[in-house]
Amino acid sequence: CQTNGAGHPGNKSKTCSFPSFPTGKRLQEWISVILCFSLICFNFYNLLFYLRLEHTPSIIVGIFAGVITADFLSGLFHWGADTWGSAFIRPFREHHIDPTAITRHDFIETNGDNCFMTLVPLANMAYKFVSFSPEALYETCPWECYVFALIIFITMTNQIHKWSHTYFGLPRWVIFLQDWHIILPRKHHRIHHVSPHETYFCITTGWLNYPLEKIGFWRCLENIIQGLTGEKPRADDMKWAQKIK
């Protein structure tokens, strides 16, 4: 980070500059986003084709379960990246130093990695639609709705996280979803950014943050891992803060 002054010593601002990704990474993100959203459209069309009125209760349950699963997985990954090791977590640690940096990423950079992660399950779903019999697809439609909801919310997790740090210029429909806590609200996510960043890890909807905190879920996992390995959670936080200064 560099401190820039203008006019007099009291007028200073701090800017952080982090390494940019190479061209190959950018190409991978573009391809992932294009393939991901193409498969999402294809699978969504086919899901609508096989939906029946009698599926309604199981579909509602499946969608809700998919969203809950995505929220839990976002928390598990976020907790692991924030808490242990230092090899693959540079963006997470930098995010704690400069939380608004994510708002300066474009759509491709924000969502490319998550799109890449969902390509295999999306391709598997598409394969089922072109190879399974109509009878088999009818029977598995509620399950596929669960998987589809899970994929959609995993795909959009980084975008939702970016919106939770964006305080100006958000579309009204995004603010509506945040205000009704359908996606991660801005005020809710600020709790995580209070040092030492040891709570409220779920960043898709945030629905699970309060119950997981009340039962001490993350602290329990940390105690188990520390007991097995001797490693202390977030032991290198100070090193990262000094490294980025």
Automatic annotation (TrEMBL):
InterPro entries in UniProt: Lipid_desat (IPR019547), Plasmalogen_desaturase (IPR052601)
Transmembrane segments: 30-51, 58-81
Compartments reported by the entry: Membrane
One Pfam family, short name: Lipid_desat
GO MF term list: plasmanylethanolamine desaturase activity
Domain of life: Eukaryota
GO cellular component, one term: endoplasmic reticulum membrane
Keywords: Membrane, Transmembrane, Transmembrane helix
Single GO BP term: ether lipid biosynthetic process
Membrane topology classification: Multi-pass membrane protein
Residue ranges annotated for the Lipid desaturase domain, each copy included: 68-236
Stated family: Belongs to the fatty acid desaturase CarF family.
Protein name: Lipid desaturase domain-containing protein
Organism of this sequence: Anser cygnoides (Swan goose)
